[in-house]
Automatic annotation (TrEMBL):
Protein name as it appears in the record: Uncharacterized protein
Superkingdom field: Bacteria
UniProt source species: Virgibacillus kapii
Amino acid sequence: MNEQTANPYNMMIELGRLIRNTNFEPKDAPDELFNYFSALSQMMEGRSVKEFFSVFPPIKRYEDDGIWNYYATIEEIAEMGTEFTKESFQHLLMKHCYENKYMQCLGLAFMDCTSQLYKRKSGRSIMEEWAIDNCITVYEKRNGEILPKLYTVK
């Protein structure tokens, strides 16, 4: 790995571009992608939270509609402390950076690859497992076939 590639910020940008600009699908290479995210997480450990958000600032969305806003993100940043841990970086990927256009595709890819690996091991996706554990019907019989249950979202 050359010095430019070994920079975790460059690695995030390169992976983000690969996901956004090609036909790359996390489900096609979940093991490799998981290893990539593991390496990123290790490289981010001990790095400055402030530095990260200067490279990948959250989008300034001020409307408080109960899903996400800039003020909630600022509160989350303050709660992270000054340096990342491996776990806090992964938590950030999966939860708190969706409104940053560069981090959104990485967070979704990370969740997709972990779900694919879980499904390979258990036969169910993480979401299916969560739904079943919470007594939410996942499948139903329709037209003589067992199909995913469809829900109307209002």
